[in-house]
Structures are given as C-alpha cells and as structure tokens.
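Aim 2, interim progress. The first record below pairs a target sequence with its structure tokens.
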Amino acid sequence: MKITISKENYLKAIAEAQSEGEVVIAATLARWLKVSAPAVTMAMRRLKRDKLIRVDDEGAIHLTAEGREIAQRLIRRHHLIERMLTEVFGMDWYKVHDEAEQLEHAVSAEFEKKLLEKLGDSEQCPHGNRLGLDSPKDRRRMGWRPLSELTAGAEVEVKSAFERDRELLEYLNSLGIRPGAELRMVSNNVDQTVTLDIGGRHVPLGHAAASKVWAAPR
C-alpha cells in the first residue's frame, strides 16, 4: 500500500477535526481541506480500500488503528517542525503552521530522530497545543476555558490557540494574545464580543475568535 501525501493529509485532518470535538463526515473534510465534495468521495473510497478508515451507518468517518498510526506520525513530525522553526530559526509563532504543513511530508524517520535529539520531547507546540491532540473535554479537565466563556474579572494566562487559521493567528498576535500572555476579562458583552485588558489596554474581541483561544486561571 502506497501512502501518498493526499492520504496523509486526509488521515491527519480526520484526527485533528475529531480532536476539536467534531463528528467527522465527508462535508467536514471538504471544509477542513478546502476541497470539493467529489474529491472527498474519491479519497474516502481509497482510504476504505486500504483499510485506513471505516464509515459507520450514520456516515461518520473513523480511523482504523493503522490509519491513526499514520496520522499520529504526521502530527508528531508537524509538531517537531513547528518547534524547529520557532526555537532554532526564530520564526514567528503565527507563521509556522503553514510552513510545517508543507515540510511534514518530507521528514524522514532519521531526521525526525535528529529533531527529537535537538529539541527534546516537549509536549507543546508554539501555539500551545499538546502533541496528543487534546479534545475540548481534555482541556476543560485541565481547568482551561475558552476566552468566550470567561466572566468579568477573571485573570488568566493564554494556554493555546487554534492554529489552523493563519488570519486569526495574525490578528490575535497583533492584539497581544498569544500563548503565555496574561490578561483580564473586563466584560463579556451582550453583542457577542468580549473586552479584554491586555497590559493595561482594553481590547475588544468577537466571540467567534475568543472561542478559539483557551486560557487557565493564574
């Protein structure tokens, strides 16, 4: 069985979407990968043939053990590349996801080993996301909450941000919202916005963006 870049991308997208709490169906993958519905249908046919996925009676897509192993290998390499780009080359944290998406397919097992020797076995990428792809339930168990759920007066440290939206990451960075940043919730407003105090500045943020940023009490 030949594992192509396309197959890797689909398997990784399934694992990532599930980690965000989504029930993965064909339309989910079309949205995540920005491809057409017919393209997803053809890809699913190949992945089912290779026993890398199974589709239940409701149309939900699940990884088989072999499919999950391939996805996790790619996710681990993506994680290491992001860390290499920030820790070794000093690239801005909000830029590295897109670069890693391109490079992850070219990393050999030997180079992956070298990266691990160089960087160590940290669980967190520059966006604060852990290697194990925590689900929203996992994050809540750790005491994290999305910024959109905080109440007035809450003082928190930003823990992670949704890394698969470059425009969002650039916007958050321009506001000073990044992993490790400390802020205070000024108000959670009726117009679906929040007002944050970041270093003495009052910063507005829409709920849609605030829901993609997780924080913990400090």
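The second target in this work package is listed in the same format:
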Amino acid sequence: MENTAFKTALVQIRTELDQEQTMEKAGRMVREAAENGAQVVCLPEMFNCPYSGKYFKTVAVRGHEDSVRAMAAWAKENQIVLIGGSVPETEDDRIYNTCFVFNENGDQIARHRKVHLFDVDIPGMRFKESDTFAPGEDITVFDTRYGRFGVAICFDVRFPELFRAMAKRGAKMIFLPAQFNMKTGPAHWELSLRMRAVDNEVFFAGASSARYEGFSYECWGHSTVVDPFGTVLASCDEKEQIIYADIDLERTDIVRAQLPTFNCLREELYAVAK
C-alpha cells in the first residue's frame, strides 16, 4: 500500500536579473526545504527568468537544458519529487512556458506546457504572453510514490474544465506555479485556489514568486496550500520564503465520501450546443 502522507514545500523565490545567481539561490532553497523534511517541493512560474517580455526570449535563446539538468540534480541530491515551477522551453522555432517534474532519482516524469496564455488588457495592466509563447496542448497528471498529482501554470487556473479533467484522471493534489499580478492577486488568487480545490475535492498548492519591488512586473506572492474542503493549510505574504504543509491524500477520499460530488455528476447535461 502506498504511503499517502508527506510534507510539501512551496519555494517562494525572488527571481534576480542574473540567472546564475537565481539558480544558485533556487538550489539552496530547495535543499533547505528538503532538510526541513519536505518530500515534495514546488518552485514558482518562470523562477529562472524575470517575468517580462524583455527577458523571456533572451533566456529562451540560452536554452532550457541547463535549468532542466540543474532541477534533475536537485531532485536526486535531495531525494524529493520536484515540481520545477516553469522555465522558457525552446523547441524548433517555438517557445513554451513549461513546468518540468522530476522524481527522487532525478528522472523527468512529467512536462506541462502552459495551456492558457496570459493575454489581458485591464485598467492599469496590459500583458500579452502570446507575443512570446506558444500554448501547450496537454492535460498533465503524473504518478509518484504518494499518489497521482496534477500540474498547471498560473492563468490555467481560470479554466475549471482543466482541473475537473485532472481530478477525473485521478489527481488528488494539484500544483500551480504562478505569478498573479498586483491587480488580480488581491482579488482572485486565494479565491481561485480555494474554488479549484472545492470544485474537485483535491489538495491545491499555488506556488508564487516573491515580489520584486520596483520591477516592471510585480507579482502578488502569497503562496498558499488548500485542502479538499477548501481550508487554507499554509500561506504567506509577498516576501521570499518557503512555506510547508503536511498532506495526506486519504483526505480527498474522506471529503469525497462526505460530499459525493463526483457521484452526482450529470455530464449528459453539461455539453454546450454550438
């Protein structure tokens, strides 16, 4: 019988303009998380690259391979499952916003390319991720020694169908590397994480970057872990830090027995006629 209990850590790192400095710090923080007992560690979106169109292509040109090798080494050296936030991934002439996942042996066990690109034009905030990135095409779930997890990236969280599909494919905990901004963060960050957890009766972990005061894109921070009943297990402010939560995936089965949402689905009614 698999052990469904583990400690998870979300590494809320501040990405520096110098990539080598950032990677050295990320490795150090992952090691600290493992030394404090974390068995599953998650980094934030674009942790190795300043979140700005000015930097995406520059970092992408260098290639993602060195970052992938570093993450694989961190996972193996610390004997952890590592959800590697996201990095700019290049393939042919396309760039993707991609999360690589590694097991305790340093083997890559999943890859999620951000499906929904962040193209918004709201008062005080205009950003068009599709100017740089191509969208992913996959729903990503993967197996670990603790059970089945899912992963998505930031803006993906606004599309509940994606997470219902993960839950139906067996995911009992979903990780969301992200960088919500100063407009949507206060309004929607915790609300979105809690609702996706409640919708699907899963653990949900939103791993944000720390805020870089004065940078062109200031993210909200506030990394958060939520249980299947919508209860916040751990959260923090905007500063650089690591947060921890004790997880037991059996809790999903308990909540689903108490509130049998999945037994009550009426999928024959949900299709939207074109």
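The chain has a mean pLDDT of 94. This observation will shape the mutagenesis plan for the next reporting period.
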